Amino acid sequence: MAVFDAPFNASVRIADALTGNVDSDIAYRGLRPYGGAVVITSAIGATPTVTVNIRGSVDGVNYFNVPYALVATPRTFVLTAITITTAVTTSYLLQETIPYRFFKLVLSANTNVTLTADVYL
Question: Are 52 and 90 in contact (CB under 8 A)?
């Protein structure tokens, strides 16, 4: 797992054809007070399913779920895991003023799903 510096107004690819029950690479965002976005693209095989948690950390060791919202409901933030069962590209908006310096995705219960993810912090 690599740690990538997240430049201002640019994307960082933290998952590139990621499979299995694993963590993505980590994006380091520093102490920025604004939100961001993560764009997740899935490719699927037979009977696909994967659970994805969007996680942040202040110290790079202890991670917690970061509030996110869908573009269609940009002020309705949730902390729940995302379940993906189709081939889709979805943008998730990250809530501002949440203190975290490190960002990653955690995949679990993965059956025949490959993910690519770009984060904008």
Answer: no
- Quickly list H helices, 1-121: none
CA distance 70 to 57: 22
- From first to last of its 121 residues, the chain has per-residue pLDDT tens of 677 666 666 789 999 999 999 999 999 988 788 899 999 999 999 999 999 999 999 999 999 999 999 999 999 999 999 999 999 999 999 999 899 999 999 999 999 999 999 999 8
Q: Which residues contact 44 (CB under 8 A, 6 or more apart)?
A: 85, 86, 87, 112, 113, 114
Plot region of 74 (φ>0 → left; ψ -120 to 50 → alpha; else → beta): alpha
CB atoms < 10 A from the CB of 61, how many?
Answer: 7
Q: Radius of gyration over alpha carbons of the chain, in Å?
A: 13
User: Of 13, 38, 41, 25, which Cα lies nearest the Cα of 115?
Assistant: 41
